[in-house]
Write a structure and sequence with these properties.
The complex is a heterodimer of chains A (115) and B (115). Chain A is mainly β and 115 residues long. Chain A is 0% helix and 53% strand. Classes of the chains: A mainly beta (115), B mainly beta (115).
Chain lengths: 115, 115
Amino acid sequence: AQKITQTQPGMFVQEKEAVTLDCTYDTSDPSYGLFWYKQPSSGEMIFLIYQGSYDQQNATEGRYSLNFQKARKSANLVISASQLGDSAMYFCAMRGKAAGNKLTFGGGTRVLVKP
Amino acid sequence: GAGVSQSPSNKVTEKGKDVELRCDPISGHTALYWYRQSLGQGLEFLIYFQGNSAPDKSGLPSDRFSAERTGGSVSTLTIQRTQQEDSAVYLCASSLARAGANVLTFGAGSRLTVL
């Protein structure tokens, strides 16, 4: 079985500052993928970043970076230079063969960027 | 089409009625997923289709829920004898394949309200 935990239900961040969203996971799979999605108030799910369990480097995509600590089973998302448009729900998710390759989501973290 | 298309976008029905929700995935995507998102909650996995393989139905909450995927493309999620607790947004997603870094692209969702 695989499980994703996001312990921060909500957080405020000042515009232009960085914010770290926590994500821990549990799996018996030796090979798995970790994803982050953003869901603004409009409801659409927007893919942000992906990290493979065997990737040597931490993933980065523009202002998004993933702090992957395999031994700790954590995959925290870092958003640098926050913008007002970053206000949204953020979901961490993972996919592994043992769980039939379906994407399992955490409960999400709501981020509100203050001007 | 360019994205995942879902219809209807909104559906209001009376308790006890049957509803059908449709998903048209991105052309060429072999994997198709259905998720349910209740208000303010995370995404709950329902069912997953991959090519011609038997679908993974492990997330369907009761036998009132069923889904089919015809010709490896369009999928229909059917809820029979709807209950008020079925009220949620039903999200469909597709991807090129089931494993690895293949990103799930989500549709805009079908919001179901059961009165």
